[in-house]
Amino acid sequence: MTKTFQNTVILEDVIKRYQYENELTSYDIDQVFEIFSIQQITKDSGLSFLEIEDGIVDGSSDGGIDSFIVLVDDRTVSTVEELESDDFKITKDSQIRAYISQAKTSKSFHEKALDKLYITAPLIFDLDVDEQVLWSRFNTKLVEKIVLLRKIWSIAVQMHITVEIFLSYVCMANQIHINNAHTSKSDQICRAIKDKTVRACNVSFSFYSAKELIEFYQKPQSTSLQLRFKEHPTPIEYRYNEYGYIGVVSLRDYYDFIVDEDGAIREFILEENVRHYQGEVDVNKGIRTTLEEDFSVDFWWLNNGITIIASKCTPYPRVLHLDDVQIVNGLQTSYTIGRFYNKQQTDNRSILVKVLIVDGEDKETIDKIISSSNRQNPVTPTVLRATDDIQRKIELFFYNRGYFYDRRKNYYKNQSKPAKRIFSIQYTAQAIEAILNFNPSAARSKPTTLIKSQKTYDKIFDETRSFEAYLNCCLLYQKVIDYIKADVPRDDRGEIRNYSYHLARVVACILTGKANYTAEDIRGLSVSELDDHVIETGYELFQEILAKYLTENPEETVANYISKGTKLTNYVNETLPIKLQSV
């Protein structure tokens, strides 16, 4: 093997190891590469495996697009329903980015891939192209992302926010080797989008080879940092192995603590905060005004300060070396300093900082600190669900069964646990709603409401039901997704993926032999031993039900029964008792 192709060889080994470590055995290498590559491209945003997988739109009628991810202030937005929820807000200081990517396992860059994107990309931003035209031309997953981005773009235009569009073409070539035709076509794609957006978007196109992906992969994301205080911070001991420090830090040194060498805010040290940056709300306006204009008094006199937790601390004179740093209160202040502080000005002001040293395994204490620290200002119930007692119990139950319930985003990802064994709160809620509550349409179209509404939240996370049933719902839905990826023909995957929750509901019926099974029935299933033949039977049965439904309801459009599928769900629930008799 010549040295020339070392990057490709190394990347192939990395992909295989990534597939093995994350237990992605049901995924073909193309699917693994798609997920891996977008994870590296968006690495600084700390997206979870499930967030990335939600952005995969490839398959038939994908318009040459493999993944489509929309971020608002580094928070993924998956549905219009999520965008319109009470706990989501776009302000004039919001950062909006869209990553539109092609990922191919070929060893070179091909012009044909660019030709497809050249046709598709302008349609995304051409508001004269009716939504129904998009439905007829592209697969449902892609259309949903396009509609979502259009709505966010509309809001951004009204608020004079420039949307960042990052287009990319990724392949396993040893290094970037492109000709003038590649460059010309990528430039044409960017110009076509700019013409449609009338300068409301910044558009860029990047090519990534094995060389760049390896560099991204090897880039460390350390949570060990040094924090320099103005004076020796005061140590305060509570009891053995539980202690903390309190002191003041110059704004200049705090800016260096939260911003990396490239000038970007270190998002990974803010993951445990219950809220992301809220933009130009009144509180942040006040912080910014104080930061930029008020030099008459010290900054810490006018600000509540910052609370940091760390798993280990090594003190030096006026410096604390901290491991596993997480800022759990003070994100709004931190973000404002990171974005608007001017290091060039003469400034001796300070900020108050509390540092609490807590064992990383002491999840209950950490949750108490996070919850208590963030109740000083109004916080929506959704973002505090992770600290509920039932959520901690579910996490412990899953853990004891060899699975990881990700109450706090990326906690287990950062511990290198297999992605296939990690289930988020939202993933679990959707699986339970579809399977245990017989409501796959709500699971598909209203994922945010399931957690936000106290009524639906209590119905889903009902402590009187077995947690074994909850885990089995997650595993059953995962098996259905694996079947779709591995056994459904590629051209048909896009359509059946839209009904994955309906299919999981049907498969549960076949496994239990009941149309109206109970949580105890689901609890008793051996989902780990589920044969693909059972899912195939469920797939054929659901296809039969769906075909009959569409025949009886010719007025139904794709958009209606995908996004507002209550009628379809009712039809499935009514039909199953009869259909099961023939299985």
Tell me what you see in this structure.
The protein folds into three domains: 216 residues, no CATH class; 152 residues, no CATH class; 200 residues, no CATH class. The protein is 48% helix and 14% strand. The protein has a five-stranded mixed sheet. It has a five-stranded mixed sheet with strand order 7-8-13-9-12, with helices on both faces. The longest helix has 21 residues. Strand 1 and strand 2 form a beta hairpin. It contains 25 helices and 15 strands. The protein has 583 residues and is α/β, with parallel strands linked by helices.
Summary tags:
alpha/beta, 3 domains, 5-stranded mixed sheet, 48% helix, 15 strands, 583 residues
- Which range best describes the helical content: under 10%, 10-25%, 25-40%, 40-55%, 55-70% or over 70%? 40-55%
Which overall shape is indicated by the principal axes computed on the Cα atoms?
globular
Please indicate the percent range of residues in DSSP E strands (runs of 2 or more). Answer: 5-15%
Give the radius of gyration: 25 Å
* Low-pLDDT windows of residues: 375-382
In angstroms, what separates the terminal alpha carbons? Answer: 55 Å
Oligomeric state of the chains present here: single chain
Number of helices: 25
A few lines on this structure:
The protein has 583 residues and is an alpha/beta fold. The chain folds into three domains: 3-218, no CATH class; 225-376, no CATH class; 383-582, no CATH class. It contains 25 helices and 15 strands.
